[in-house]
Amino acid sequence: RQRPAGFSCEGTAPSAVGLGYARSPAIESAEQIAAWKKITDAVHAKGGKMFCQLMHVGRIGHDANRYTTSPLVAPSAVKAAGQIWTDEQGMQDHPVPHALSTSEVVGVIEDFAKATRNAMAAGFDALWIPEGGLPVFSLCSAAALTPVPLTLGTSVAVAFARSPMTTAVVV
């Protein structure tokens, strides 16, 4: 009776390094792009739109929920309080993450840029990067970041606003 207005894929990791929750998707490999393309095509066939929320878990995660041997990374090597669910081991304490060096931050930013290109290739209509899913960018500004939906065009863009008064900053 009604066509869907839009769907958001919450918590999609830009790369394996950004994974940490059980059964969370990523968008870094050709196989993942192809799988997302089937989903976006099906939504578009019904007149809907698809939004990809890119989220890097930072220190909130567990190795049992990841398909990489790379450690969890965060701005500092401070263990998060509490526990996280893993399918294989049940509730587990958060591990101590690897503290990113300045040069490693560049790699995480490159992961987001690649994930943006991959989201475009997979047929997503828009990209959303919430502040909580972009912990390394919090290093760049003391101001709180506000989520801003960004319609993807022909160029690769990552947007975030430094305050509710800012429309968007395109990097």
Q: Major sheet: order of its strands?
A: 1-2-7-8
Classify the secondary structure makeup into a structural class: alpha/beta
Helix proportion range? 10-25%
Tell me the β content.
Answer: 15-25%
Unreliable spans: 133-171
Rg, nearest Å: 16 Å
Q: Total number of helical segments?
A: 2
Which outline best applies? Answer: globular
Number of strands: 10
* End-to-end Cα distance: 40 Å
Element order: H for helix, E for strand: EHEEEEEHEEEE
Main sheet record: 4 strands, mixed
Could you tell me the mean pLDDT?
77
Structure overview:
- The chain has 2 helices and 10 strands, in the order βαβββββαββββ.
- With 171 residues, the chain is an alpha/beta fold.
- Strand 4 (83-86) and strand 5 form a beta hairpin.
- The chain is globular, with a radius of gyration of 16 Å.
Provide a brief overview of the structure:
With 171 residues, this protein is of the alpha/beta class. It has helices at residues 30-45, 102-121; strands spanning 7-12, 50-54, 73-74, 83-86, 90-93, 98-99, 126-128, 150-151, 159-160, 169-170.
Essential attributes:
171 residues, 4-stranded mixed β-sheet, 2 helices, 19% strand, globular
Reconstruct the topology from this structure.
Blueprint: E1 7-12, H1 30-45, E2 50-54, E3 73-74, E4 83-86, E5 90-93, E6 98-99, H2 102-121, E7 126-128, E8 150-151, E9 159-160, E10 169-170
Parallel strand pairs: 1-2, 2-7, 3-6
Antiparallel strand pairs: 4-5, 7-8, 9-10
